[in-house]
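Recall that a protein's primary structure is simply its ordered list of amino acids. Everything else, from secondary elements to tertiary packing, is in principle encoded there. The following example makes that idea concrete.
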Amino acid sequence: MRQRRSLAAGLTVGLLMVAAPAAGKGGEVGGEGDTYNLTNGWAGVTHLSMSYGRDADTVYVGNWNGRGTDTLAVRRGATYHFRNSLSGGPADRVVTYGRSGDVVLMGDWDGDGVDTPVVRRGSEYHVKNSLRGGDADRVVRYGRADDVVIVGDWDGDGRDTLGVRRGSEYHLKNDIAGGDADVVVNYGRAGDEVLVGNWDGRRGDSLGVRRGAEFHVKNTISGGAADIVMAYGRESDAVLVGDWDGDGRDTIGLRSTRAVEATRPVDNMREYDERMIEMINAERAARGIAPVRAVPELRPAAVRHSQWMARQGRIQHASWDTISSDARAVGCTASSEHIVRTWQRGTPPDPRDAMDWYMGSQVHRTGILNPAYRYVATGSVEAGNYAYNTQRFARTC
């Protein structure tokens, strides 16, 4: 929830309560319910489902301890309960600040990595740079009382500022001050629910919108077509935006009265492999990388290696000679092999477990996202409580 002070010609921050809906970083999370479904990618699947707080709590998202991962806070009147992990249980910190009727936004206003509140009272904003009570560190006046205000790091300097939304026009300012906007951009439609996040892990936040149950996000502050489109959840779910796994990229969460079904375990290992390729391509598509094409003729070689690992009970790569000859036998040029063993805990195998491990490893993530790797075969076997997976990538076939 790193956001930003962005205003145009006297923008007025407190407008989260009026006009077209605004969601995403910095603002109060809408809806109700104590169930939160979080996704760490753009494949439309839930990675974590958790319960926190009460159905009617006012909820915010932010990085409350500066450790790089966004978590939740609930507000009850003028008291804020901050939790530093994505789990239920008591708050890690409880702070009383401002008044119970205040309109509040959260952001990293001073660039120290910790999100803190700004209180809006009319067109006056009381900025606090720490999670404790007492006087504001800075008081600033902004803009119009009918503006919709969003929060984001628009220039990538690590400090959140404010932005004004007027229909489909966004006035973004790179410091907390009055005056003209630094950037004015048209994006989406006037009735869209707007989102703000750092979708690609690069410099600064940009915009997105939700239409029904479909999310359209843009990796640059500009008009034009979305860079990522994902269907997820129900239109009635409230949206959260945050960096749930600390990888520097913001993704979507939903607040609901029920859990969103996570990736469904598969019925057989062929389905496991097919779904894994879908996940590989979802990760590539989220970053604008062309999809890999499945090579069915190469899958038996990948399966053979997974069978060998299962018999040996260990994880070990095939020799490069074997990998190369297996690829040549079906007319391909080999490029790399990925292997993993996941513990299924006595449950049906789920390819999401393997993909989460691969994407959490720098070397494997780099391979999966390598644009030069244009073909793939995956071969997996189940043995006891384990699933063994082999990925074989090729440059040409």
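Residues 1-21 have pLDDT under 50 and may be disordered. The radius of gyration is 23 Å.
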